[in-house]
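Aim 2 progress update. The chain analyzed this quarter is reproduced below.
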Amino acid sequence: MPIECVRGAPACALLDQAQFLADWSALYAACPWATAFQGSGFIGAWYRIYREKFEPLLIISRAANGDLQGLLALAVSRPTGAMVVAGSHHAEYHAWISRPEHGNLFPRSAFRAVRRSIHRAGLKFRYLPPHAPTAWLLQSGMKNISILKAHPRPLLPFGNGAEIRKSLAKSGNKSRMRRLQKLGPVVFKRITDPEEFATHFDEIIRCYDTRRLAVNGSAPFLNDPLKKAFHLEMLRTPGLLHVTVLKVGEHIASAQLNTCGHKEIHLSLLAHHPFFAKHSPGKLHILHLGKMLMDEGYERMDLTAGGDAYKERFADAWDEVHTLSLFPSTFARETAGLHIGLEVAARKVLKHHGLTPMQAVSFAGKISRVNPARWTGLAMRRGRDWLMPHREIRIYRFSLSEINEISTPDDFHRDSLDDLLAYHPAAALPSRHEFMSDALRRIEEDQHVYTRVESGRLLHYGWLAERPTDGLVNSVFKDFPLPANSALILDLLTLPTARRRGWAERSLRIMLRDARAIPQTENVFIAIPTDSHACRLVEKIGFKHEGSHACH
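Predicted structure tokens:
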């Protein structure tokens, strides 16, 4: 089968030709397994935005009459020379497109054309779409240089819409909607105007990166400055990106960015605001979105593979997709298989000890951040804590009824996700993943965070629990009898490089001012280790020592 490899400037010129794009669209329409991620709209948008990082490489086959009969869009990393499928991790599905009769012949011929240029780490297809031909991998020589692995794919079929209407009518979902409506007008809408999308996108990004940091320690938009521009470019491409938001007042409670397929829509990005989490806006969003998509002619939502728990909860059906890795040699394939085996074994060891891979990475990062010159002092402190585990915690109370007014400059932010995203770990402090996981948990428990950021770095933070749960009170104050109608100040921290600026005192005074505005709140409590300098600070402000308990 004739194969042509077009790379760099000639590939860019080809992508600008109307006839080539028309031929691409015709081939895409004739390919039974093609998804939106193999269309010229998606791949063209990705090539345009990521041109500084990747050089386009088009693997093309034409019939004798010049008709396009096979196409595989690849890219070459400019910094490393590694070859990837176009779209890289932004594309949920990686595949070639061809006419059905060439479904096995074309990929084998295309692979032969680029095999010598593939890095020993392999050319990875994230997920092959269902029904993508794989018989060519069973042919002579291919088994020894490829790894094909099956994965379940959760789906949400709409049917006649009866199940969606039934779910929306459930008392629990109606109650969630009523609670949201008490916070402001609730609007569910689709956004098609790029300018309108741009006005909301930063808030969506904040919510998304916050949750991704909490879940797996990664902030996709913070780490990739081109990712925002790519999604804006996708929306400017007709029929490619489906954007919906659930707004409560002026805030976005939930948002979804999905990629449009033929009769199904592919889940691409889901975000919800942590301050609305207890009302389950993500669940309400999917139900309203399902109703909208059904009215628009879609038959189902592809929740995409990956094993996320929330996808399994919504799925009503499953099928199968595959990951595929192709290698330049048998040795490279065996080496990759060995690495996969070691990774699986390491995960089993971590699981046996009750650790996740992310926790292990966080611990290693924490150790690496400690200056070797401080290791002796750190070891002595750990030894002291081990030898004298009963550390006294002093409990202080501030009576709000004893004052008329608390004046303080309002130079701190309250409940700012941007500030939390500006956290960078210092020596012996939690990793970003640990910090954001804890912050998300606190936010979802209705705690409020007070922050100070300078030069793009979070330097001070503290937490106020206006209505602390019994579990929170018991974890902090042990057996100390906390009066009703009390608020708590928790975990006030200033980074060592930013101390002696009076931030802790100003932060405390702002929290006391806000606590005073909480209906029926009479006292504010704080617990501080006896050997902490903060004891003198809270006493200066007016906190009274109420008692102590031993901390193990």
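The domain at 159-298 is CATH 3.40.630.30 (Aminopeptidase). The first helix runs from residue 9 to 15. These observations will guide the mutagenesis experiments scheduled for the next reporting period.
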